[in-house]
């Protein structure tokens, strides 16, 4: 199978249909062959894209905007591997990548965490046995801290200032060890994290509080593949699933009037986070029951049956890809 990395232009905001769908033809600007399945992708900057491969390779592709071509700029071969890096088939899938230019962190099926810097040849640091199970996703909590999720329902926090290769904190779903597939951190309040996994549930965590999720919300009927807070309006969150649905979770309704209580072990404590632009004083996500009176949930693609594998959101735009081998762009999220 010939896998490719493609750069598209979706044109200007002029041609929009009644339901906010983009009507102009998206244009393929350029593409390039990719070895193995693409497991994850992240822009490092305006021109460079970091790509995780099922072969274990991690590649930086550069988009040359002057002549609309893509080229492989840098590659770390078999950054992830099972037993022997030298073996011809020894690669383990690199499952997740996160960038904070120039730093790149990757996780994989081999339970490894790699720290790379763009333009440096080898890994700056590798935690070989970070996990005995598959690591599925990674995110930065702050510049010196990352969070990983694994296939036995655990979140692990790693303090990059520490030289010892142990997590500084472990949080986990109780009971069944449900594999977690995706994680995102609240853009303004780094202690709030959302995860999703094999059971389709949405879990909201406060990493300052205890080791269990603050709330578990019934969501999809199959695996949740991706979760994203809106980067500039984090009262909105988006999840997509194998069941063919893409949900918009909106906690922005009347939140300011309601204090948020976080119950744990019989104690109730109230947290007032620093007021940030576009955000109520108290985060609705930390309510003990966020769905009560304060959340609207909408399936943005009600008639879809094939898996929605990936999504991203920026400003009024949502883009998602499905098993129909199609990419969809909704340009009027909040219309």
UniProtKB/TrEMBL annotation:
| Record keywords, A-Z | Nucleus, Repeat, WD repeat
Q: Does the keyword Repeat apply?
A: yes
Q: What is its main location?
A: nucleus
InterPro entries reported for this sequence: WD40/YVTN_repeat-like_dom_sf (IPR015943), WD40_repeat_CS (IPR019775), WD40_repeat_dom_sf (IPR036322), WD40_rpt (IPR001680)
* Pfam name, any one: WD40
The record, for SUPFAM superfamilies, names: WD40 repeat-like
* Gene Ontology CC annotation, any one: nuclear pore outer ring
Sequence ranges of the WD repeats? 173-215, 217-259
Compartment(s):
Nucleus
Alphabetized SMART domains for the sequence: WD40 (SM00320)
The name of this protein is Nucleoporin Nup43
Q: Which organism is it from?
A: Tinamus guttatus (White-throated tinamou)
């Amino acid at each position: 199978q010939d896998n490719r990395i493609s750069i598209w232009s979706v044109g200007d905001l002029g041609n929009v249909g009644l339901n906010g769908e983009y009507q102009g033809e998206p244009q393929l600007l350029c593409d390039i062959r990719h070895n193995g399945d693409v497991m994850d992708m992240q822009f490092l900057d305006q021109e460079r894209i970091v790509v995780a491969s099922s072969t274990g390779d991690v590649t930086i592709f550069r988009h040359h905007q002057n002549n609309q071509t893509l080229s492989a700029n840098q590659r770390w071969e078999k950054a992830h591997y099972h037993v022997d890096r030298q073996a011809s088939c020894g690669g383990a899938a690199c499952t997740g990548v996160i960038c904070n230019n120039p730093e790149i962190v990757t996780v994989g099926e081999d339970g490894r965490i790699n720290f790379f810097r763009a333009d440096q040849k080898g890994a700056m640091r590798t935690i070989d046995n970070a996990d005995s199970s598959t690591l599925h996703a990674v995110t930065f909590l702050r510049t010196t801290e990352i969070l990983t999720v694994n296939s036995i329902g655990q979140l692990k926090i790693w303090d990059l200032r520490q030289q010892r290769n142990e997590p500084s904190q472990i949080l986990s779903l109780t009971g069944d060890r449900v594999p977690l597939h995706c994680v995102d951190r609240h853009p303004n309040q780094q202690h709030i994290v959302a995860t999703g996994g094999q059971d389709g549930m949405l879990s909201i965590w406060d990493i300052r509080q205890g080791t269990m999720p603050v709330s578990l919300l019934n969501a999809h009927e199959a695996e949740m593949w991706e979760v994203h807070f809106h980067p500039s309006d984090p009262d909105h969150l988006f999840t997509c699933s194998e069941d063919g649905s893409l949900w918009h979770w909106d906690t922005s309704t009347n939140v300011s009037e309601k204090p948020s209580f976080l119950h744990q072990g019989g104690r109730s404590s109230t947290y007032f986070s620093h007021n940030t632009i576009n955000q109520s004083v108290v985060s609705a996500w930390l309510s003990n029951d966020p769905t009560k009176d304060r959340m609207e949930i909408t399936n943005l693609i009600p008639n879809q049956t094939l898996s929605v594998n990936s999504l991203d959101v920026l400003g009024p735009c949502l883009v998602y890809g499905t098993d129909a081998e199609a990419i969809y762009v909704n340009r009027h999220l909040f219309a």
